[in-house]
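Hi there, hope your week has been kind to you so far. No rush at all, and the record is pasted right below.
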Amino acid sequence: MASPRRLATAAGVCYLVTHVTSIGALVLYGPVLHDAGYVTGPGADTRVLLGALLEVVLALAIVATAVALYPVVRRHGEGLAAGYVGLRTLEAAVITVGIVSLLAVVALRRHPGPGADQASLLTAGRALVAVHDETFLLGPDFVCGADTAVVAYLLYRSRLVPRSVAVLGLVGGPLIFASAVAELFGLYPQLSGAGALTALPVFAWELALAVRLLTRGFEPPAAGTGAAGAVAAA
């Protein structure tokens, strides 16, 4: 197994990659997400395709964070650690469904097929964008909220990172999950001030965790702490 310091560095880098790629993809997707007539207009296909590429990297980095953390956190709760890997994989899979839906919009605009009229194209294009919007709600909100709470609890209990960092995740995970419930039932839109506000603790958690892992690694375990001592010996 790689040393805990190397695993911490890998996880920190992957967390930073998820931030950069998620924000970049959202910006690049602007034309297809906000132009209801994109599928029948001139389009900005290269921009959308670059956004899709960034989200592919995002999905891979999401899984990589769990893979890097698992060998260390499993010593403090193997079931929860396995659950974290599963949830992160599910989050990446949901994001991938959203990527496919927007790639389908581009394909439909380029090759509408014989006999396709403008009204049917617009309907299909809007439906595919709606699929992407719902995957955004399910993956980065619901599933991310759950997996954040799980790994933050493991890190809090094990003291592998300062508890102040872990508390951000313990607050942010349930908060973004609750926000997703509110968005699901129409209390406010996904991309709204309230939605952005409730996402801030998770954003701060992942950024603080990434910086901590990159600069300091995991906290050294105290002597005689049992399972924690195994981390230092690995």
In short: The chain is about 80% helix and 0% strand. The longest helix spans residues 118-158.
